[in-house]
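During the reporting period the student researcher (J.K.) took over the structure-prediction task from the postdoctoral fellow and processed the backlog of single-chain submissions. One of the processed entries is reproduced below for the supervisory committee.
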Amino acid sequence: MKTTPDNQKLFDLIDEARRGKIVLPQFQRNFVWSRDDISALLLSVLQGHFIGSFLLLNTDKDNVPFAVRPLEGVSLAKEKLHPDAMILDGQQRLTSLHYAFAAPDLSLKSTRYSFRFFLDLNKVLENDWENAILSERTIECKAMLEQTKQFETLVVPFTELENWDRWLHSYEQWLVEKDKDAYFNQYFKVSKPAWLAVMDRVKTFMVPTITIPKMKQDDPEALAEVCAIFEKINSTGVKLSVYDLLTARLYRHKIDLHALWMEAVDEYHILDAYSEGKPDEFGVYVLRTIALMRGLDTKSRELINLAPEDFVKDWRKAVEYIERALERMTATGPDGFGAFDRKWMPYLTMVSPMAAMLCAIDRQKMGHRAYHWIQRWYWASIFRERYAGAVESTLRRDYLDFCKAYEAPEFEADCLRDARVNILENQAFSLKNISRLNSIYRGVICLIALRGAKDFSADDSIVFHTLEDHHIFPVAFLRDLHGADGRPFAAEQVNCVVNRTLIADQTNRQISKRSPSQYLKDIIPAARGVDILKSHYIESGAQAAMAADDFEAFLDARERVLIAELSRRING
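J.K. obtained the following structure tokens:
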């Protein structure tokens, strides 16, 4: 997409925004700058410093590709907006400048009040730029808005700077009547030249603009490029997703994506909890699910062009199956995946293909093999970190492989082949090197939850307690043990997931630095010890190693049991 670089006067951009010639696309986030942010920007303008470039999209005023709105603080009805351009990058800066020079009744970040900004001309004369800009609550600065008070204090509202010549002429008339000596000596020789230099700098302040040419609203390639531009320019700030862009596109078709989202979180409680009521992440997951259900790719350029026909019906269906997928992923009962807390969810991105798979099962009346395949796919993907990077191509491929595997039982999907080669048939596969909180680590914790693990001390299900993943062989015990016999202290193995399990914080405090042989006697109920430990994949070999305080033997024994369980789930 060809762009045109240029320079424009800052005041011209502000004026065009005020008249509705420059607008915001509906998907742009709200104005979030604070008074300190605005003061810093104004200071840069006064000193002639670079304030960044502005990215604009030229528009056909009668055929705008997105729903639009005026800059916050601009009092224009939406139906009266016939813009020449949208601002794609620079919204916060342009809105801040309009705020300072126009003083709309708009509260700023972290406050319920609107503010007025002032320039202290005395500080300008002193080159004291850090203190030259003042701001006060609008309701408290009535006196400062009186012109006589401004002449006396030389503190000028920024709202007067666009009409500086008029203000200065009035000040000269006031000063010559009040103090002719000051007028002819101090003012003409010192003050006026210094002030005019600053005001000329402000009035002629130029900003670089980059303009994207007009695009047709039904041009999928151009829309996709705009989507890509947004993802790039927002990579270091508040990230705008394809969900935001589609919200604007569908609004023109009288589809209110925001209202659909609010309906979804009101109805589906797990979705509400995991999304925290915000569509930033899960809004995209729903759109990916819709794309899969429609037989489409899930890349951004496809999602931005999702057709509005039947969209509301497809959205509600996708949300329903997103909730069903989350139910499975968070369940600790039979056929669940054990992520009972968000901290232990290996990959939320897997919710879209799983939702689409569950929908296909119901729609095509698939049998038990389909559910069985989902189980195998899930665990293979978790322990091969399949969803660790960019996922659009992966989830599309996995969904298509799911459909193909149901039609052709002999077909081996890519995810299952990868797990077979690198886990099931790989003698070197180990969990002892997993100490970082990645999907494999989380997967082991989920397996422990699915085992029905019970707290060591309470002999009660872990789901009823405040839990963390604690060491089975305590760190302090191992450090003392290795220090005594001269062996190096292998921190990675000490912290590996094989030496971790879910127990209550209180139980962990009881264990403290005791040796396993000691807390087996003191903390774990004697009559229930064997079964309690088994519920953590600590079978007889690992139990014997704990009783002997043999850390290496414990790791070997427990790892064998964990890998056997993982292999069973991948093999089915």
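The committee noted the following: Residues 235-239 have pLDDT under 50 and may be disordered.
J.K. will present the remaining backlog at the next meeting.
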